[in-house]
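Give me the 3D structure for PCDBF protein.
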Amino acid sequence: IGSNDIQVYHIFPESQYFTVSYRRQNEYDMQIHLVLQQPLDREEQPELDFTLIATDGGTPPRSGTTQIHIIILDVNDNAPIFEQDLYTGEVVENAPEGSLVRRVIATDADMGINGEITYHFSHAAAENQSKFTINAKNGEIRLREPLDFETTQKYEVSVRATDGGGLSALCKVLVDVVDVNDNAPEFVVSSFNNPLPENTGPGTAVALFTVRDQDSSMNAEITCALEDQLYFFLRPAFKNYYELVTVSTLDREERAQHIVVVTAADAGTPPLTTTHTFTVDISDVNDNAPVFNQTSYTMFVHENNVPAVLVGTVNATDADAGPNAKVSYSLVPAHPAEQEPCSCVSVNSENGHVFVLRPLDYEKLKQLEVVVSAADAGSPALSSNVTVRLVVVDENDNAPLVLHPAQDSSPPSSELVPAWAEAGDLVSKVVAADADSGQNSWLSYELLRATEPGLFAVGAQNGEVRLRRPLTDRDSVKQKLVVLVRDNG
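Predicted structure for PCDBF protein (489 residues):
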């Protein structure tokens, strides 16, 4: 009581945060206050421990103590903090849905609900973020769907971390899409000259094309090759541009169409290839004259033929095409200086039929030759000639003519036979001729009538008249013989 009562309170050790304020209420009670001197930071020091000492005014002074333990309650005064402001990640294109891209981590110095962090995408880049999902609890970013390097090579997303008290922080995540060799080369044809004239010279560009690959790096490095380089080759123009070029002059008659296959391969692993087919048609040039199917023709016509009789056909073909292969026929002089061809022969210009226009007489004309020309319809036209030998075949249109004895003499021709003539002696000879030829002119002789039938005989082949027996007194002094001369027609 009195001065021996408590006189002073203080804290030990001294605290920068608290002081003691006390006031006597009455003789027996003292009101003591801990006074906060400055704001507390739980994240810096979550708890405080110190001793409150009460000292009396006696001599010697005495003191009493009590331990004070202060727990600082959390206030949401700290926003989440990401470990990095910028995160980078890589993902292989065509990686399956759900593949992990990157994990973002944020921490919050607060505790309890104030320190509980949830992750979500910021709405600022919704288009990019539609490709991804984020785990709200652990910050794992995964694929919502496979990505395509050829569509987008890089994505930028914003992630917001929010604590339970509503404070948040942002970070950026850059996602690089790693190319996979999933695209084969593509052909783009700029020009294609088709059809190609067959007289086109070597080194002529037929087509110009480019090859491209939507992949990148080695996956987009392309080489081109031809399967067959006999007629064409590839000539690089500039980067990934090529010309399809002729090796030599092409011949339509040898090959009218060329199938050219170009193969493009990238340098990926494994490489992807694409083929493109150029169908090159060779257009015709009139470089071939008509050719007859025979080097010469021999045709036969019977004399006394009917007018305009068909005696044969000439035929020529042309290796060209279209009008260049259309053949027409005509008669031409065998030599330029000659007169017009024989008017008795004609040829059909379209089908090559050869006609004899008027009757022929073998005895006047046994054969003749004409020249037939076959010309195509090209410009200029090409032509070739062939000789047609026309042989007149004899008809038996001439009776034998008796030359001896003369038939027009008056009196009739007579022969003298000696009385002593013997059997077999030559009396006379009938001589005849036939204007026909061949067997039509083969003559045979026959004794048709005689005054004394058994006295004379006529040689069937030579017309010789001979005695069959000696003459007698009973034989008539005059003998009349009729000899028949017959040809073999």
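Residues 401-487 form a domain with the Immunoglobulin-like fold (CATH 2.60.40.60). Let me know if you want a second pass.
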